[in-house]
Amino acid sequence: MTVNFLIIYKSLFIFTYMIILIRFYVPSFFQLSANGSNYGEIDLNGRILKMTSGVSNATSFEMPLDSLSSCVLVNKDDVEVQFAEDETADRDDYNLTQITFHFPLGQDGEDLHGPAASFHKRIEELNVIQAITGDVIVEFTKEQGNFMAPRGKFSIQMLPTSFVMKGPKYTYSIKYSNLNSFYLLQLSPDISAFVIGLDKPIRQGQQKYQNLAMELPAFKESITLNLTPEQEAQFPDLQVSMEDEFRSLVAKVFKAVSGKNVFIPKKYQTVAGSYAMKCVHKTNNGFLFPLTKAFVFIYKPTLIVLFEDIKRVVYKRYSKIAKSANRHFDISFVLKEQAQKKYECKEFLFQNIDRIEFPNLNSYLEDRKIETEFEQNASSKQEDYDDDEGDDEKYERGSDENSSEEDDDYEGGSDEGSDDDESGSGSGSDESEDDRKAGSKRPGAKSGGDAKRSKK
């Protein structure tokens, strides 16, 4: 009987002790808040961030900071933390990528760098932000790295497996495996746009950037690369010391280190002899480049629309009746159903394209086997533009002796094949040939082709 009393006594003691723990400790430390409040107190315990609800005094959430990729003091009230994306996650999975914490100031508003700045400093002191690993092969400075998308000045560090963009507030580390395409597009004789297509977009606040666009000048520049003997053998197109036009240097380095091709326009030309049509997308002026397998729009937003994702192209505001009233027409890229999720829209509309570009564009799309149609109530007969626009220059199908199904892969310019080489002889690079064709005119600029509109 003595043993039984001891067992009962121990059981009552354990039960009472558990009740005390549940009563006093669980609500304050382990119970999660479910009242929907989004404000409270933030506590940093080691590498764990904990937020306590300001209503129930319960824990709103806890999260480790080991996967933190960036911490930005957006303004005097807000701090944005970004997390590295899980590359093993499925494309359709939801992942936490960033959280913005708002720290309201006192009523006097005099403390301009108070709680938000303190929180930002504490995060940085934890040294939890993922460090940039690997030796830098070459670095392009902020003065050289003028980006159009995302807009701002970023320095670029080229690493063996990724490149890093460092701006005043945001830093991005992008692996070469996340890149799908490069395009070097000439905007003027002195400026080119280098477009980088991403498999996964980067974020700047609420804005996503699926494609990056860098503005590259044509001035001569020299760079020094930090190449190991193994890398010199791995990248035979790179040398320790290189001198060329800056746009050529950037294209060469990205192509060699990433192993991806850099495409430049070749097949399509406008009436003015350039490679892009001036147009408007939404409310933004820009240039539309028809390539062999894609359309590229520069620059806001920077778009890459693959031909394989286009169901049909619809011409709008183009008909024989409307000719006297409309000097421009619109085109709409209607996307295939399976591609709408990829682009997050059903169609792309480009407006105010010069009417004289219609014959070239229509013939080019026919050669690419892309279905075209006219907007309802507009004529869809070939003779509507063949007869009326007979004096306009047209895209000559099959006129390119070196015709192929790919855009030219950028091989890099040279002094022999530069824009100043009037003879056309030299290294024979694709880039130099295209530069000579488009170098004298800005894409979409008025030229002799505009005068043909008045011919009858």
Question: Care to describe what's here?
Answer:
This protein is of the alpha+beta class and 456 residues long. Strands 22-21-20-19-25-24-23-26 form an eight-stranded mixed sheet. It has a seven-stranded mixed sheet with strand order 9-8-15-14-13-18-27, covered by helices on one side. The protein has a four-stranded antiparallel sheet with strand order 7-10-11-12, with helices on one face. A hairpin with a 2-residue loop joins strand 14 and strand 15. It folds into four domains: 30 residues; 86 residues, PH-domain like; 123 residues, PH-domain like (Roll); 178 residues, PH-domain like (Roll), CATH 2.30.29.30. The longest helix has 23 residues. Helix content is 20%, strand content 34%. The protein is globular, with a radius of gyration of 30 Å. The N and C termini lie far apart (120 Å).
Structural class: alpha+beta
SS elements, strand count = 27
Q: Average pLDDT across residues?
A: 77
Task: From the alpha carbons, calculate the radius of gyration and give it in angstroms.
Answer: 30 Å
Which CATH top level class of the largest domain fits?
Answer: Mainly Beta
Fraction in beta strands: 25-35%
- Quaternary structure classification: single chain
> What name does the CATH topology of the largest domain carry?
PH-domain like
State the CATH architecture of the largest domain. Answer: Roll
Number of helices: 10
Spell out the CATH superfamily of the largest domain: Pleckstrin-homology domain (PH domain)/Phosphotyrosine-binding domain (PTB)
Overall shape: globular
- The separation of the N and C termini measures 120 Å
- Largest beta sheet: strand ordering: 22-21-20-19-25-24-23-26
